[in-house]
From TrEMBL:
PROSITE patterns in the record: PUA
Origin organism lineage: Archaea, Methanobacteriati, Methanobacteriota, Stenosarchaea group, Halobacteria
GO molecular function: RNA binding
Species whose genome carries this gene: Haloarcula quadrata
Protein's name in the database: Uncharacterized protein with predicted RNA binding PUA domain
Transmembrane segments: none
Pfam families per the UniProt record, alphabetical: PUA, TGT_C2
Location of the PUA domain: 80-154
Length: 155
């Protein structure tokens, strides 16, 4: 991977996840394995512990569990987090969606379409996915999908 490509990935992650997102996800170009599309764009970014993210055609990252864990370690709560309790933990861990009924709290800055870290109330990562509701209202809703889970911790 070239230095320009590495800086570009970090810049895109900083834009999407806020300051420090690029550093949290991408430690160094020598630690990453990047696959490219036929046109040469970065597509999948892997590290030794798994898939960090997929770089979409829209210029946004879709997190993998490895990337979710890195963001969880790098950012203090509630940033990018949706917190659930014991009742829904086994289902979300299997990769099922997180419903608003079970959300205890969420980052109020989350918007529908943002990448979200679904976290147990004890602080460990259960899944990564896409927010379907605004974070400011997730714990207020009684019905509906809060996070469309892309990958559960047991997938």
């Amino acid at each position: 991977m070239s230095d320009d490509e590495f800086r570009g990935l970090r810049r895109a992650a900083d834009y999407q996840f806020g300051g420090g997102g690029g550093t949290a996800l991408f430690a160094g170009p020598d630690t990453l394995d990047v696959t490219h599309t036929s046109s040469g764009r970065p597509r999948q970014v892997h590290a030794t512990d798994g898939r960090i993210a997929t770089y979409g055609d829209d210029g946004r990252f879709r997190l993998g569990l490895a990337g979710g864990n890195q963001l969880l370690d790098a950012f203090d709560g509630p940033r990018h987090r949706v917190v659930v309790g014991d009742e829904s933990e086994p289902f979300i861990r299997e990769g099922r969606n997180a419903f608003a009924k079970f959300v205890q709290s969420a980052d109020s800055a989350l918007r529908p379409g943002d990448e979200a870290l679904v976290v147990h109330e004890d602080g460990y990562l259960l899944a990564v996915g896409r927010a379907e509701l605004p974070g400011s209202g997730m714990d207020d809703f009684e019905t509906g999908m809060a996070v469309k889970v892309r990958q559960g911790a047991e997938d």
